[in-house]
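Appendix B. Chain record.
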Amino acid sequence: DLFRVSGGKTHDWMLHGPLHADYTIETPLELKPRAGKLVEISDLRSAVTDGPVSWTIRAGKSAVRALLAAAPGTEAIQGQGPAIRRPGKQSFTAVRRTGGKSLYAAVHEPLSGEPRVKSIEVLGPQDPEAALIVTKVVLEGDRIDYFLSTLDAQPPFASRGPVAECSLAGTFAHVVEIGGKVSHAELVGSELIFHGVKIQGAVYSGKILGVERSVSQEDIRKAY
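Structure tokens predicted for this chain:
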């Protein structure tokens, strides 16, 4: 996930598990009781950190970990709210940042044993209005994934700080490095140059004429 947020004073990035099932949420942060409510979410506990925030959601034999990149003065909040799709209450979380501008970068990893994702980091200034944002995700096995994101309808951008030898003519790119060498990459745009490797892409344009759905409303109601 990458969310650029500008305006207002308080921003909450919220997360919950499967609302039709019972689940738990874990975090390594030491949460302490907190006053107030988040709409209908009460019994709040929170912690303020300058480091990354990790939530692990477990439901039955399934588990997913959300790892959020660090930013100064981040408040991680957990509380209880209406379960919505079943009786009772359930856990909800929020990552709160203040100041009018926020950049939320997160990676979601289904777990089978120990996590493969070691860290996530936004390279360079954490400015949601920056022309180019580069997110670095370090995995086990000497692998690094880079995600490059620009604003829509922008000219090519050359990175002078976050990543050396980086230029993107497009809106998005994903680059995989293994052992310090580019393994493969994909992009939405015409050209990417990354650590000396040039990748050609394609630009598509047109009008969306319609959207079709194969699942009916009745099928959705039966599922829940």
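Further analysis of this model is presented in Appendix C.
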